[in-house]
Amino acid sequence: MILSVIVMNSEGKPRFAKFYDFQPIEKQQELIRSVYGVLCSQAENISNFVEAESIFGSF
C-alpha cells in the first residue's frame, strides 16, 4: 500500500508531498525529515524507495 509520495531535492526541501492517509501538518513535516534522514544515510547506488515500516511504523 502506498502511504505517501514525496519528491525532494538533494538538500531535503520537499518539492512535492502527497499523503494518502490523513496526517496533521506537524506529522507530515516530521515524516519528511525522517525520510530525508534515511535517504542521506544510504549509499548512492541504493534505491530511493523507503519501506513504510521504517518511517510510518507497522501496518
Automatic annotation (TrEMBL):
Domain AP complex mu/sigma subunit residue range list: 1-54
Pfam families for this protein: Clat_adaptor_s
Highest taxon of the lineage: Eukaryota
Protein name: AP-3 complex subunit sigma
Source species: Cucumis melo var. makuwa (Oriental melon)
